[in-house]
Write a structure and sequence with these properties.
- By secondary structure, the chain is an alpha/beta fold.
- Helix content is about 40%, strand content about 20%.
- The protein folds into two domains: about 120 residues, Enolase-like, domain 1 (2-Layer Sandwich); about 230 residues, TIM Barrel.
- It has 13 helices and 13 strands.
- Helix 9 links the parallel strand 8 and strand 9.
- Bound molecules: magnesium ion (MG).
Length: about 375
């Protein structure tokens, strides 16, 4: 008899953090955030295997938690956890009328990642092995800095990250003095990317790009509103003189195809905890290969979603695969020190499944009721 999914639990966590100074008021939800919320799922089979997944978190958590508990989980209980592709396609078809992104897709993403964890554990193999295997024992990462706006605070955190061994940085600034200060402090050899989170029209973005060009950005991320304005991004890419990255707000394989076919990006950034988990992520790697475009997986999270990205990037990414590390100093990490980068590189877990288990003490101590 086949193994069955027996139980699904959605667990919200709230962990205090600092980020080397005051974040920009108005950015990051409430402004000066003091805690980071994440949503993990625990899927248990009737054979006793446990898999962990993660959905994109922050203020979307109440909606996603309900979507998992009341809509998705009942459709998964009793199903064969090894038939991931079939189950995910069936659920996408069944639930498409409720939207192809947002809470439902975020929830499906979490379940999918947990099922890959279970598949690896059932096979006694790390997920990267199931995806084709990987030589790399570690991947380079970039420190993804919070938005500070104040140039002195930006410089202090650039120094902090460089001091810890990072050679690649991402800024979330939207004003020029902050970017200028970061480049000045980092020098020319450090790779700096700039993520502005969709603020501008195409014209405004072109004007900004002209001013940003001297700072030699590796990429400019999500410059245009709305994020699905692929033609606008493509024009910017042709005219701005700065490589363009986007994709964390794209969902479904079809939308990634539209983004890539439009020639919108130099770097495509699928977010496994948002766009369908490892099942969809590996398809985007294949699609991006067909479009000769690099995949830089979005992972502004540090749970199973991050591990999913590490395994997929290690197995499917080329030599230029780089992992995003959210540069927060958290009071605790779900995986303790195991996942925290050292010298700007993150270990590729070698254990079965996602390769590391959440720390039960962290789950107990930081769980939201
Ligand atoms: Mg981004």
């Amino acid at each position: 008899m086949n193994t069955k999914i027996e139980h699904i639990e959605a667990i919200a966590l709230r962990i205090p953090f600092t980020a080397g100074g005051k974040s920009d008021v108005g950015a990051w939800g409430d402004g000066d955030l003091k805690t980071v919320d994440s949503l993990v799922v625990k899927v248990t089979t009737d054979s006793g295997l446990v898999g962990w997944g993660e959905s994109f978190g922050f203020t979307s958590i109440p909606a996603v938690k309900v979507a998992i508990e009341q809509i998705i989980a009942p459709l998964c209980i009793g199903r064969d956890p090894s038939q991931i592709e079939k189950l995910m396609l069936e659920l996408q078809r069944k639930l498409h009328i409720f939207g192809r992104s947002g809470a439902i897709m975020f929830g499906l993403s979490a379940i999918d990642i947990a099922l890959w964890d279970i598949a690896g554990k059932a096979a006694g193999q790390p997920v990267h092995q199931l995806l084709g295997g990987a030589d790399a024992k570690a991947l380079d990462c970039y420190a993804s800095l919070i938005r500070y706006t104040d140039p002195d605070t930006v410089v202090a955190n650039v120094e902090r990250a460089l001091g810890e061994g990072y050679r690649r940085l991402k800024l979330h600034e939207v004003e020029l003095p902050a970017v200028q200060a970061a480049r000045q402090r980092a020098g020319d050899d450090v790779e700096i990317t700039l993520d502005v989170n969709c603020p501008w029209t195409v014209r405004q973005a072109l004007d900004m790009a002209e001013k940003l060009r001297p700072y030699k950005l590796r990429w400019l991320e999500e410059p245009v509103w709305p994020p699905e304005n692929f033609e606008g991004l493509a024009r910017l890419r042709r005219e701005a003189g700065i490589p363009i990255a986007a994709g964390e707000n794209a969902s479904t394989l079809m939308e990634f195809q539209q983004l890539l076919r439009a020639g919108a990006v130099d770097f495509v950034q699928p977010s496994p905890a948002k766009m369908g988990g490892i099942t969809e992520l590996r398809k985007v790697f294949a699609l991006a290969n067909a479009h000769n475009t690099s995949v830089m997986v979005h992972t502004f999270y540090d749970g199973p979603g991050l591990l999913a990205s590490v395994h997929a990037s290690a197995a499917l990414g080329g030599a230029d695969a780089v992992v995003e590390w959210r540069y927060f100093d958290q009071e605790a990490y779900l995986y303790g020190d195991a996942i925290v980068p050292k010298n700007g590189a993150i270990a590729v877990p070698q254990g079965p499944g996602l390769g590391i288990e959440p720390d039960p003490d962290v789950v107990r101590d930081y769980r939201l009721p």
